[in-house]
UniProtKB/TrEMBL annotation:
Gene Ontology molecular-function annotations: phosphoribosylanthranilate isomerase activity
Listed PANTHER family: N-(5'-PHOSPHORIBOSYL)ANTHRANILATE ISOMERASE (PTHR42894:SF1)
Gene: trpF
Residues in N-(5'phosphoribosyl) anthranilate isomerase (PRAI) domain copies: 5-209
Name of the protein: N-(5'-phosphoribosyl)anthranilate isomerase
Amino acid sequence: MTVAAKICGLSEPDTLRAAVAGGARYVGFVFYPPSPRAVAPALAGELARLVPTGVRSVGLFVDPDDAFLEHVLGQVPLDMIQLHGSENPRRIAEIKARHRMPVMKAIKIGGPDDLALAAACAEVADRLLFDAKPPNRSDALPGGNGVAFDWTLLAGRRWDKPWMLSGGLTPDNVAEAVRVTGAVEVDVSSGVEDRPGHKDAGLIRAFLSNLSGL
Ligand SMILES: O=C(O)c1ccccc1N[C@@H]1O[C@H](COP(=O)(O)O)[C@@H](O)[C@H]1O
């Protein structure tokens, strides 16, 4: 089995190149201004143009309105929209139809009850992404907090759409996370940073290398 990886929150050419050279299948750009990983659309456009065919560029949004989506999509050649806010199935369908882009919906997991939303979102989204529910802290982001959830909640579960595992993954724990959940796609952001918002090429290489052969 080959596990595909997404490296999210890229904002510099060197770490983008490290992700691509290491075999990442997806690269992510954050369009959520409060995040330390937020990138201006003009810079994201330049970075996305460095991404080779076969690697997909994903734009991360949190409850975006249509004007903001149009503003970003007009400058950045994205392959997929990641919705990481509280978008409901109706809004997901609306975004897909209006912007004609594949959509990956983040489902935030704190306990077994949170999985119910996944089935409803799978009816309209192209992919699901499972992340931890944000911690109860005033500075917590809607995602990208480096927090893992109980991976056993996903063990043996099946979904109607492809899905990615995220939340607190690191080079050290990603192999175990894949073993427990059966994930064939994983997404990482803070686990490959040397400080909040700053990607580290060595950690990106280690993360991708620890996935090879799984
Ligand atoms: O990375 C961010 O800054 C971010 C901001 C708002 C919503 C989601 C965000 N990141 C996504 O969160 C998960 C988990 O990240 P981490 O590896 O635990 O840091 C991942 O899917 C990121 O794409």
